[in-house]
Amino acid sequence: MRFGLLGPLLVEGAAGTVVPLTSRKGRLLLGALLLRANETAPTHGLLDALWGDAVPPTARASLQNHVARLRGLFGPAEQDRIRTTASGYLIRVEPGELDTEEFRRLAEDARSARLARDWESVSRAAAAALRLWRGRLLEDLPTLAETEPADPFQHALETSRLQLRSWRAAAELRLGRHHDLIPELASWAAEHPLAEELQRDLMTALLRDGRRADALEVFTRLRLRLSEELGVDPGAAVQKVYLQALTEEPPAAITDSPGIPAAAVSAPPRTSHNPALTPDPARAPTTAASGATGAVPPARCQLPSEARAFTGREAEVERLLACARHAADGEETGWAVVAAVDGMAGVGKSALAVHVAQRVRGDFPDGQLFLDLRGWTPNATPMTTAEALDALLRSLDVPPQTIPKDPAERARRLRDRLAGTRTLIVLDNAVGSAQIRPLLPATSRCLVLVTSRKRLTGLDDSLAVPLRVLSEDESLTLLRRVAGPDRVPEDQPEARELAALCGFVPLALRIAAAQLRRRRSLRLTDLVDRLRDEHHRLPRFDQLDGTDREAEPGTQRRTQREAEREDRGLSAVFATSFTALPATEQRLLTLLAGIPGADVDVAAAAALLGADTVLTEQLLDSLLDQNLLTQHVPGRYGFHDLIRLYCRAPGHWDADEYRTALDRLLAHYERDAEQAAARLRRSPRAATATAGKPDERGEEAALAWMRTERENLLAFARFALAGGRLPRRRASGIALALALAPLLHQEGPLPDAVALLRQAAEAARAGGDRLGRAECLTELGRIHMQRGEFTEAQRAHTDALELYRAQGERLGEAGAIYESGTVHLFTGHYATALPLLERSLELFGEMGSELGQANALFQLGRAYRLTGDLAKGGASGARALRLYVAMGKRWGEGHVLCDLARVHQLGGDLRAAVELGERGLAAFQAIDNQLGAATACQALGRIHHDLGELDAAAELFGRALRLFRATAAEQAIARSLWDLGRVSLSAGAPERAADLNEQALRIFQASGSRNGEANVRHDLGRALHALGRTSEAAELLAQARELFRDLGDPHGEAEVLNSTGALRLATEGAEASLACHKEALVLARRVRSPLEEARALEGLGRAHAALGETARSRTELREALVLYRRIGAALAAEKLLQHL
């Protein structure tokens, strides 16, 4: 058979006869299947393709009927073409049967021939591919063609078609067949009036055919069209042919596109969703003149403003622009286009990169990212690979909670995110090649500009752009542009001396010129006189460079004399700039230079200075105007590293004043962080602890502030905790660590949280702060539990309980008992957990803590549910829900609603369970709580699994797993793996189910989670049963039943008994099976679980059928069917109905 998508949908039989497809739904179905040929097309996607937004309740049944009709049209010999899979349908297509696949193969042949410079083969393959084109993709099915995955596929095909036309034209011209090519080329050029390569080739063919006037007319039309639509002139390649036409020179031989080596040309890649060709969605060849700008501003533009009066660097700018054109207009090569700018500090590396980036931003419409890698930032460690990847992924709108933990996974995620895009990335202030390599995209459509003080020799195939100081003339030009021509007269000899004293370094030149512009009374000669005094010069430039460590291969260190000469120029500028400042600005600058963290806002700077925010903002803006501060984000102020170093030099500040100012800033951060934490905290604080007033702006604003200040708060907390014998500073560090705990608990990374809280707990112990240590241990225990480190969690809560009791702190005591009970609940020690949770509820009630009571009621509801008492579980959860709603705690609502959904699920009311689960998810989403949303997805996935909606369940479980992995929440990860294993087993994939359950089992065993281990052993046994490994399956099921019995979980035991009954029916006979299902039936009815009751009845019916007791069997099976239908377990009901 043959299938056609390039035009109206076409199906041909083995004899070449057209197979009639009169039903529109049938055509839509076949088109949707062929778009994912040889891959599963998910059921939900097929439903959308056939019915759009109006999917009827009977859609799944109708879909099955349409599939059956389609199979019938193919005939008896081809009915197995369409196969039913666990999550949808798959159509099998053999090589050569699908036109888009043939198009891809021929495009690859043309590419290979082009690399070999076999122009005859290029022309032949390209022509064959182009003949397959009967029209737009699925031309007769526009509703399908406009949806995923067809729409981007169509765009990619059009791009590849244009590329093939260009290749064929170039090949024919090389072969001297210009005369016969002209009609075809003219048609193509008319169809693509802005495709300069086609227009150039048409002009060349006409010139070779002696039609000079026609060639000039083509150029005129192109120039007018480009001018009117894009505001640009034709590119250099077209201009060259135009000049040949004017001078009547013979046209030169056709060459490859400028700047693109022939070996770099690659065939368009395939997409992950379609076996047919999906070319890279690049622009058509040279659609505008090189370097053209003026595109619509992209959604993500992080580029800083360009430096005013950018001067010089013509050669370097041209090299970088050529590199940018290569990325924007070149062909896909599979590796990033990288330009690395290196040079000394202050030489203008960042200014050059930003200047070029601003010029070419229109060529990279998918975003322009800027990232400071802190490679040479004083008193700050360079960004790690993981941190840099995290920052880039966040810039690309990847939610923080979904970012993988492993740096290699983050790098893969970044490459995936950038694939198929035209994105410009500026990586500023890099420490070395190793820091850069993982950040590079795997596509030559992206441009990466890197700046570093060191030559990045380890970046293979990158364009190295070494940056030297400005020439004397360029330096004078820059001085005059910034200061004003009247302030730096051309004929004044001191101007050249000033440039020399500045070392011809752009940063120094700018600061000197700013002084002349701002202080009209300062004469050029006076400034030069001051710069001759070396008393306040910066340390040697090697010291400024971070002592330069080891010189990289192929580089040479500067001599001491050279370093001292350069340092004199810079230090003089910094000194005169600083001393020219008013005293208040000097004071603010030096205080800012000494604080931890990368930047500050106005409020923090005001606290440091001890002034009001209005005055502080004026001072900050003044320093910003003089290039002494930087601002990459509105409202936040940072330092250039050179100026920070200068301001930290001895003699610039008073140590006592600095300590006082730092204490003010610490108090500011401590107060604001505690106010924000009061909104985010999930448990009541000890009554005698220092507690802040909740942030009046609400939880959303508190979370936003905490996220913005996160890095500064972490830096200050670590700084303060390292304060040694300074009690006040140490206390601030402890307070900041406790304030950060809710954010770190919610968003991670959890390992960082553990390290910080351990440091805080140790500081509290060293300082004799028993209550502070107890609080740190409580928060540390919560983090340990979230990580699945139950032994460490229990130890922390036990130690905290002793400290609270010794202090007579009853609210803290209640909290420690509650946390201990929760750990026991998670590890499956239900008998121990229940009295602890009940005691904590009693204590919270005595202390009047509604939040504590709500938390205890929620966990008690879970405990009652897990021990089979669904009625008490539901009642306890309902009480907790009322309290959370009254307090406005949406996160609490979300958790309780998800657990109540589980109660209804076990009780057989699956539709009510879905409604509760969706309400829980909405509550979490309303407050941007991604971990909570993941928990809700997990709960909803389990309900959809019981409903037989496996696609929806798998999607929800996969989403939950991604979110949990981002925060390294090991227990939640294990539960998600188990959930996915259960779906895989239901979908008929026991091997994958076994693998997922084995992964989960290792995590549960390592953490001591008996409940998790019981569930996984149960499902692993079921998977091995399906794989025929019955002895191992029997052993695992026996272990699971024993664990559930020890846990006091009758529902879990009933599940295992039903699974064991099914296994014994296959291995030991009907009598052994009956015993298991009878026992399961008793337990299921005791705990009121209609789903397990139905499974037990089904098992009894199958066993009685095996014994020949047909009437009894049919009665039991019908009872099971009624129960399945009543609770909405559609998949189970369908399977049983087929059996009946």
Automatic annotation (TrEMBL):
<dbReference type="InterPro" id="IPR002182">
    <property type="entry name" value="NB-ARC"/>
</dbReference>
<keyword id="KW-0238">DNA-binding</keyword>
<keyword id="KW-0902">Two-component regulatory system</keyword>
<dbReference type="GO" id="GO:0003677">
    <property type="term" value="F:DNA binding"/>
</dbReference>
<dbReference type="InterPro" id="IPR042197">
    <property type="entry name" value="Apaf_helical"/>
</dbReference>
<dbReference type="GO" id="GO:0043531">
    <property type="term" value="F:ADP binding"/>
</dbReference>
<protein>
    <submittedName>
        <fullName>DNA-binding transcriptional activator of the SARP family</fullName>
    </submittedName>
</protein>
<feature type="DNA-binding region" description="OmpR/PhoB-type">
    <location>
        <begin position="1"/>
        <end position="93"/>
    </location>
</feature>
<dbReference type="InterPro" id="IPR011990">
    <property type="entry name" value="TPR-like_helical_dom_sf"/>
</dbReference>
<dbReference type="InterPro" id="IPR051677">
    <property type="entry name" value="AfsR-DnrI-RedD_regulator"/>
</dbReference>
<feature type="region of interest" description="Disordered">
    <location>
        <begin position="252"/>
        <end position="300"/>
    </location>
</feature>
<dbReference type="GO" id="GO:0000160">
    <property type="term" value="P:phosphorelay signal transduction system"/>
</dbReference>
<dbReference type="InterPro" id="IPR027417">
    <property type="entry name" value="P-loop_NTPase"/>
</dbReference>
<keyword id="KW-0805">Transcription regulation</keyword>
<dbReference type="Pfam" id="PF00931">
    <property type="entry name" value="NB-ARC"/>
</dbReference>
<dbReference type="InterPro" id="IPR016032">
    <property type="entry name" value="Sig_transdc_resp-reg_C-effctor"/>
</dbReference>
<keyword id="KW-0804">Transcription</keyword>
<feature type="region of interest" description="Disordered">
    <location>
        <begin position="677"/>
        <end position="698"/>
    </location>
</feature>
<feature type="compositionally biased region" description="Basic and acidic residues">
    <location>
        <begin position="559"/>
        <end position="568"/>
    </location>
</feature>
<feature type="repeat" description="TPR">
    <location>
        <begin position="774"/>
        <end position="807"/>
    </location>
</feature>
<dbReference type="Pfam" id="PF13424">
    <property type="entry name" value="TPR_12"/>
</dbReference>
<dbReference type="GO" id="GO:0006355">
    <property type="term" value="P:regulation of DNA-templated transcription"/>
</dbReference>
<feature type="compositionally biased region" description="Basic and acidic residues">
    <location>
        <begin position="539"/>
        <end position="552"/>
    </location>
</feature>
<keyword id="KW-0802">TPR repeat</keyword>
<feature type="domain" description="OmpR/PhoB-type">
    <location>
        <begin position="1"/>
        <end position="93"/>
    </location>
</feature>
<dbReference type="InterPro" id="IPR001867">
    <property type="entry name" value="OmpR/PhoB-type_DNA-bd"/>
</dbReference>
<dbReference type="Pfam" id="PF03704">
    <property type="entry name" value="BTAD"/>
</dbReference>
<dbReference type="InterPro" id="IPR036388">
    <property type="entry name" value="WH-like_DNA-bd_sf"/>
</dbReference>
<feature type="compositionally biased region" description="Low complexity">
    <location>
        <begin position="275"/>
        <end position="299"/>
    </location>
</feature>
<comment type="similarity">
    <text>Belongs to the AfsR/DnrI/RedD regulatory family.</text>
</comment>
<feature type="repeat" description="TPR">
    <location>
        <begin position="934"/>
        <end position="967"/>
    </location>
</feature>
<dbReference type="InterPro" id="IPR005158">
    <property type="entry name" value="BTAD"/>
</dbReference>
<keyword id="KW-0677">Repeat</keyword>
<dbReference type="InterPro" id="IPR019734">
    <property type="entry name" value="TPR_rpt"/>
</dbReference>
<feature type="region of interest" description="Disordered">
    <location>
        <begin position="539"/>
        <end position="568"/>
    </location>
</feature>
